[in-house]
Amino acid sequence: MDSPLDVLEQAEAELAAAEHDESVTGVDRRQFMFYSLVAAAATTFGAQAAGAQGAVARAGGMGSLASGAAQPPQVPPVSLGNGEAPALQFMPYPGGTGALMEKVVREKGAAAFARTPHAVEKWSGAVPTNPDDLAFLPAHRISALIKARKITSRQITDIYLARIEKLNPTLNFVVTLLASQARAEADKADAEIAAGKYRGPLHGVPYGIKDLFAVKGVPTTWGSIDFKDQIADADAEVVVRLRGAGAVLLAKLATGLFAQNDWWFGGRTNNPWNTNIGSSGSSTGPGSATAAGCVAFSIGTETQGSIVSPAIRNGISALRPTFGRVSRHGGMVLAWSMDRVGPMCRTAEDCAMVFSVLHGVDEKDASTVTMPFQFDRNLKLASLRIGVDPAAPKELVDTLRGLGMNPKTIGARPTVAGGQGALGVESAAAFDFFVQRKAKEMGLDLNTIFDTPRTGNAPYGNHVASLPKGVEAGATNPMAAADWNPRFFGGRATRGFDFIQGQRRRMLLVAKWGEFMKDLDLFIAGPNADVGANAQTGHPCAVLPYKFDVPQFGGGGGGGGANAATPAPVYKAQPICGVITGNLYNDDLILSVAHQFQKATDIHTKRPAL
Is the bond preceding residue 282 a cis peptide, omega within 30 degrees? Predict the structure, then answer.
């Protein structure tokens, strides 16, 4: 291999032989040779390109030498908000989405991609007359009653609105109540059903949605007082699909500030079973409202634990889908390569019913794919390859084994040293517009703030100049971990080179998980064991209650930080949840397995005493 000096000698020889017209460039031949060699040396010896280019620029620049024309004035870059996606798209299938499509067509045929409406079983028996009994019915049972015209959408909507009015002062899960709109939608659903225009299993069923999603003409606050008056001029795609299915939107439900924990500008959202602790987050309102029987189902989001954690905390069922199965369009972006949307419900079948409407390609979200989804309420567990980790909940495993599961013991899941999550950098990019705005409001210099000392839970650092009005130096804030300064600023310091290298290692992790899962349809492990890894790989999971007991709440899970100072809390018994993790796109299988458990047990039917 040539040495750097050899390379420079070769460059000098080539330049000496090159034609140079001084009348065009305005630079004599000797200067041309010098500037060209400076640029070559910068590349050869690894000097900073900026320094070499600066030397050239001071003499007119290489561009001027080549063209003889003055450089055009710089055009300011196009302004970006929160939603514009980057050119790179994450694909969870190791071989890429194209290979995935070909594999599915080859193995199952093109007909497998046809969307199959969820078939709700008919209602049988007496109809509950107690409003509370109706409120706590699974969404698919409410659907059956509405379809059979044994209750009306307006009737169940009014029941939920009354419960919200009664319980929200304690639980604090509503950001914006849409009572008038909900009653109008319920009346419309009833009229359509009476006229024989039935839209499907969600027709007339009331729900709530996390306040990260745009609803036209309604505030979308992202849990932040800075955005409490943000009004969208269009609906998010999930809202469009649910409205098209005839579902009735009751309320925008609380999200933790900028999608972390259970604190937002209205305070903390609480767990209905144990109101002395938050409902975790960041899908804090959906978790609390669903568990409290104030909606038939709700819609949450997850980047790294924000469906799983509040579902576990509130003792409900939920689906965190495979990455790319549900459109995020019109929702707040935290991380383009990690954000997911999923149903939070009282049963696994409810999740399947809602997901059957939500999933599928949306051209406004380039990450989305359409894959087969076939919920099977009579699935034979013996037909599946199910892994069980030694740390899996015994009660869950024993019940499933009794129902026919033949478990295969699994060990530790794959890891890749030096891998890097995308959350820090992507969220910093998504919220650059906000950081710039806040820095201007507070008089902060974004070029020097990296030197600002910080301690633990102090969101604004320790020097008084950086503190907003009314915040004392060193003051703690339960929302500190999600606040703009540490969360959306830290990612700005990551070099692009390091980010790309981290994402390359992330794809190595995806490949290793593909190898690990090749002989498994799904597995059961500790409830939170794989949340972090699967935030990177995109695998789905179902949450389901498996026993009723006094919970052992820790400090994590997106909502624990705000509760860490609570002295020796005493908790009452509530549903305790497990997690079933599926291979990619096995969303239907994990829900079908959870349904087998729920058919044989009644943990999911228990209610909090409120």
Answer: yes
Tokens of 344: 């939070």
Residue 563 predicted with pLDDT over 80? no
Cα separation, 286 vs 276, in Å, equals 18
**Three-class secondary structure of residue 299 per DSSP:** strand
Residue 12's Cβ-count burial label (10 Å; 0-12, 13-18, 19+) is middle
Q: Per-residue confidence at 554, pLDDT binned at 50, 70, 90?
A: low
Distances (CA, A) of 142 to 127, 145, 202: 10, 5, 9
588-599 per-residue burial string, b: 16 or more CB within 10 A, e: under 16: bbbbbbbbbbbe
Q: How many residues does the chain have?
A: 610
Tens digit of pLDDT for each residue in 42-56?
444 444 433 334 443
Q: Residue 195: what residue type?
A: A
Structure tokens at 318: 């939920």
Using alpha carbons only, give the angle 131, 163, 222 rounded to the nearest 5 degrees.
140
Number of Cβ within 10 Å of residue 115's Cβ equals: 11
Question: From the CA atom positions of the chain, what is the Rg in Å?
Answer: 28
467-483 tens-digit pLDDT: 444 445 555 544 444 45
Asked if 284 and 240 touch (Cβ cutoff 8 Å), the reply is no
Q: What is the mean pLDDT of the chain?
A: 86
C-alpha to C-alpha distance for 14 and 407, rounded to whole angstroms: 70
Smallest Cα–Cα separation from 52: which of 72, 37, 73, 31?
Answer: 37
Better-scored residue on pLDDT, 39 or 520: 520
Q: Which residue has the higher pLDDT, 585 or 39?
A: 585
Of 144-158, 278-292, 490-504, the one with minimum mean pLDDT is: 490-504
Strand partners, 386: 407, 522
Neighbour tally for 493: CB within 10 Å: 12
Please state, in angstroms and rounded to a whole number, the distance separating the CA atoms of residues 213 and 303: 15
Question: If pLDDT is split at 50, 70 and 90, which confidence band does 485 have?
Answer: low
Q: Which long-range contacts (CB under 8 A, 24 or more apart) does 395-402 make?
A: 395/546, 395/547, 396/524, 396/544, 396/546, 396/547, 396/578, 396/597, 397/524, 399/546, 399/597, 399/600, 399/601, 400/524, 400/593, 400/596, 400/597, 402/600
Neighbouring C-beta atoms of residue 475, cutoff 10 Å: 13
189 to 159, 180, 181, 381: CA distances (angstroms):
16, 14, 12, 38
**Which residues are annotated as catalytic?**
210, 282, 306
